[in-house]
Design goal:
The protein is built from 16 helices and 4 strands. With 373 residues, the chain is an alpha+beta fold. Among the domains are: 80 residues, 434 Repressor (Amino-terminal Domain) (Orthogonal Bundle), CATH 1.10.260.40; 67 residues, no CATH class; 63 residues, no CATH class. It has a 4-stranded mixed β-sheet with strand order 1-3-2-4, sandwiched between helices. Helix 4 packs across helix 5, helix 10 runs antiparallel to helix 11 and helix 12 crosses helix 13.
């Protein structure tokens, strides 16, 4: 990803902090024509009080009044309607600015700098504009709506909407990571979900574990989209210890979102098949957010699904029972399973068959995010 810091039109956009009522222009027009407010009232059939309130900005110019002004003053009704609309918009913006000024501290809850670095949002020098940019990113009208929305999502996923007392986790960071996944997934056209098609696609994807990212990412996204699953890869954010998530965007479209939290192929692929297990085995109303320490029956089921799909238990047991675990045997067994050898090494380490510092670690592929121009 490339950094998007620097000058751009958004950095110094001018937004007036005042609103000029259409009545000011109306008064200038009357003076130019040598007409009094009483004259205008008589010609439009409106009370003088109404004309005076319009000039003072206390009453709006309605479409009906705009037509009357066009006939009497010779100035198009569209002109007066546009003045009124712009005035009301400016008033609304002023009120929003006043409201947001009291909520600037919210910016500290969100990893703004990292999101700018990743190109998820634009950078603005003005904090109000930066706050508005974040609301646009989240697709919500206010901070109150943001909190209600993400409070529900993060509580549903099992990560309470507060800083964890155990893990260095910030809900703002998690919400930003999840939201970027939503945005990216919306751009992926998927066929209606089919569990049978998804199961078939997993067999194909299993063979992709041996490929490099330049190959497997494009193919797995396409294959899963044909089964109704949007697969996205989103860089990890600080204080967002999440390796993956499985959730439903619509009843016919699911999302599997992955980070490179652990940066090796065994973790990446286990995370993917774990999330696939949730999609196949569990309900559409839940959000399965994978983070340190998550436990439970559904997690155990997804773990078992991933473990057995990648390395069937019976074959794994026979391999272990032989008692010969070296470079050659590991490579050959992985070839029979049609998976990357790093996945087998990770399984052996997880089961304490070999150490985490084992010389077999050379079979693992290490991934990293590369900046794109």
């Amino acid at each position: 990803m490339t950094s998007k810091k620097g000058l751009n039109e958004g950095n110094y956009e001018f937004t007036p902090d005042y609103a000029i009522p259409p009545g000011v222009t109306l008064l200038e027009t009357l003076e130019h024509l040598g007409m009094t407010q009483a004259d205008l009232a008589k010609r439009t059939g409106r009370p003088v009080k109404t004309i005076n309130e319009i000039i003072k900005g206390k009453s709006a110019i309605t479409p009906e009044t705009a037509l009357q002004l066009e006939r009497v003053l010779g100035v198009p009704a569209t002109f007066w309607n546009n003045l009124e609309r712009n005035y009301q918009e400016q008033l609304a913006m002023q009120k929003e600015k006043e409201r947001l000024e009291a909520q600037i501290e919210w910016l500290k809850q969100i990893p703004v700098k990292k999101m700018i670095e990743y190109g998820w949002i634009k950078e603005f020098k003005d904090k109000i504009r930066q706050l508005q940019e974040l609301l646009n990113f989240y697709g919500v009208a206010s901070i109150e709506v943001w909190k209600d929305t993400w409070d529900n999502i993060l509580n549903t996923s099992g990560l309470v909407f507060r800083k964890s007392s155990v893990f260095d986790t910030e809900p703002g960071a998690v919400s930003a990571w999840l939201r970027q996944g939503e945005i990216k997934a919306q751009k992926i056209d998927c066929k209606p979900f089919s569990v049978s098609e998804f199961r078939k696609s997993l067999m194909h994807i299993k063979s992709l574990t041996k490929e490099v990212p330049e190959v497997f990412i494009k193919d797995m996204v396409r294959i899963c989209a044909d089964a109704g699953i949007a697969v996205v890869f989103i860089p990890e954010l600080p204080k967002c210890p999440v390796s993956g998530v499985a959730r439903w965007l619509t009843p016919q479209k699911a999302l599997i979102q992955l980070s490179l939290r652990y940066k090796t192929d065994d973790h990446l692929w286990f995370s993917f098949f774990h999330e696939a297990g949730h999609i196949i085995l569990h309900g559409k109303r839940e959000i399965f957010l994978e983070y340190n320490g998550r436990e439970g029956e559904l997690e155990d089921e997804a773990n078992q699904f991933a473990a057995d799909f990648l390395i069937p238990s019976s074959k794994y047991k026979r391999f272990i029972d032989k008692g010969i675990i070296d470079h050659d045997s590991t490579r050959k067994f992985a070839e029979k399973l049609n998976i990357a050898p790093g996945i087998l090494v990770g399984r052996l380490q997880h089961d304490n068959i070999i150490s985490w510092s084992s010389h077999l670690n050379k079979h693992k592929q290490r991934f990293k995010w590369v900046a794109k121009n």
